[in-house]
Amino acid sequence: MDLVQTLAKQYMKPELPVVGIGDTVRVNVKIKEGSRERIQAFDGVVIARKHGGISETITVRRVSYNVGCEKVFPLHAPNIVNIEVIRRAKIRRAKLYYLRGLSGKAAKLKERL
Q1: Would the pTM of this model clear 0.85, i.e. be above it?
Q2: Does the pLDDT value for residue 1 go beyond 80?
Q3: How many Å apart are CA 50 and CA 87, to the nearest integer?
Q4: What is the CATH number for 59?
Q5: Does residue 44 contact residue 35 with C-beta atoms inside 8 Å?
Q6: Residues in contact with 22: Cβ distance below 8 Å, sequence separation at least 6, in sequence order
């Protein structure tokens, strides 16, 4: 069991920002197209955080052109360049799945100062 933990620890990223549920984040992802590589940003609200250790993931939701889009990002994946927190929200739930059914002003979260 210790062997698995030492292997996992070696591939974990040492510096990760404190990302909480309800935070609006910008996730910069490395995308490979043929022989070229570029960085693409994905902005949205963190609605879930799962697992722990090397397999920790966050689910980020954004709405563009009235269509909701959710992506699950593994925090320690090598193709995640960085995660920056744009704003923090005051919430009282561990998972914000109820935002899927809301739209417009009803889906706004109060900002935490």
Answers
A1: yes
A2: no
A3: 21
A4: 2.30.30.790
A5: no
A6: 45, 46, 88, 89, 90, 91, 96, 109
